[in-house]
Specification:
Order of helices and strands: HHHEEHEHHEEEEEHEHEHEEEH
Largest sheet: 6 strands, mixed
Number of strands: 13
Helix content: 25-40%
Radius of gyration: 23 Å
């Protein structure tokens, strides 16, 4: 029987290949970065060739690494599923779901009682950390992400289409210094979500106003905090119509009579094989029924 490499080394390799970061993979596996690097080096010695191109701030699978990833990634996923099935303490269906906090608060949690009533055995572990797509199969069964497009190698179902609005505090429309003209953004701070970096550019380009530059741009990784900052008058948030509607916050208003098609949508995403898992399939069908 042929000798096989360490499973720990293969696991480390798959995590780094998917996340593109030794640090992120080490955190996922609860290891130190040096320990994880040693596992990968051991695997590289076993196969007799390097598997990654090491760059200044990233590590990317090279041609040999991509070939190995294509071969062993699905096998490791299947092994993980088999072990979890064997060690599951109860017949409870459990879904490990990555989801953005704002989507969870505005659109998911208000409807979870309906899901529990229809599928009482389904339980969801909610994960709001970043890199949801990269962690599919490695800690997550499925994810709800905000993106322009999805890797065609994944299963993806678009959940909405939206428009980009300029959202600000209601009081900014009042008084002698009211903000009524988009050109006044040159005196304002613009708020941008890191998951939607092109919203302001899409909105600005649609207006065809030359040289429209805000006084400053502040970036957020929390949609809820971004809306609160806008409500406090700290800037103009460029977000979706649904974000404003679902916030139900009387302090917030649409600033200008401008609607621009958003380049971003919410997507349900998983690896194709994950749809064979009952918790993923049950949640997917329920979620899609809400958007149909």
């Amino acid at each position: 029987m042929r000798r096989l490499p360490s499973l720990a080394g293969v696991e480390a390799f798959v995590h780094v290949a998917r996340l593109g970061s030794v640090k992120a993979a080490a955190e996922e596996l609860a290891l130190s970065s040096p320990a994880l690097s040693r596992r990968i080096q051991s695997l590289e010695r076993f196969v007799g060739r390097p598997l990654f191109d090491r760059r200044h701030q990233a590590i990317v699978a090279n041609e040999d690494g991509e070939k190995l990833m294509h071969l062993v990634g699905p096998i490791l996923d299947s092994l993980t599923d088999a072990i979890e099935t064997l060690t599951s303490p109860s017949p409870v269906m459990r879904l490990r779901l990555g989801v953005l906090p704002l989507f969870a608060a505005q659109r998911l949690f208000p409807r979870l009682a309906d899901l529990r009533e229809k599928h009482p055995s389904l339980h969801i572990d909610v994960d709001t950390a970043a890199h949801g797509v990269a962690r599919l199969g490695d800690g997550l069964d499925a994810a709800i992400v905000l993106s322009r497009e999805i890797d065609p190698a994944l299963y993806a179902r678009r959940l909405d289409r939206n428009t980009v609005l300029a959202i600000g505090a209601r009081r900014l429309l009042q008084g002698p210094h009211a903000i009524k003209d988009p050109k006044q953004l040159s005196e304002m701070t613009v708020l941008i979500h890191r998951e939607m970096p092109d919203t302001f550019d899409a909105w600005r380009n649609a207006l065809k106003i030359k040289n429209l530059e805000p006084a400053a741009i502040d970036h957020f990784d929390s949609g809820q905090l971004m809306l609160e900052a806008a409500a406090q008058g700290l800037g103009i948030a460029f977000m979706h119509q649904s974000h404003l509607d679902d916030a139900h916050d009387e302090r917030l208003v649409k600033m200008f009579d401008v609607d621009v098609e958003s380049p971003y949508s919410y997507w349900f995403v998983c690896r194709p094989r994950a749809l064979q898992l009952e918790p993923v399939r049950v949640f997917h069908d329920w979620l899609v029924s809400l958007s149909d």
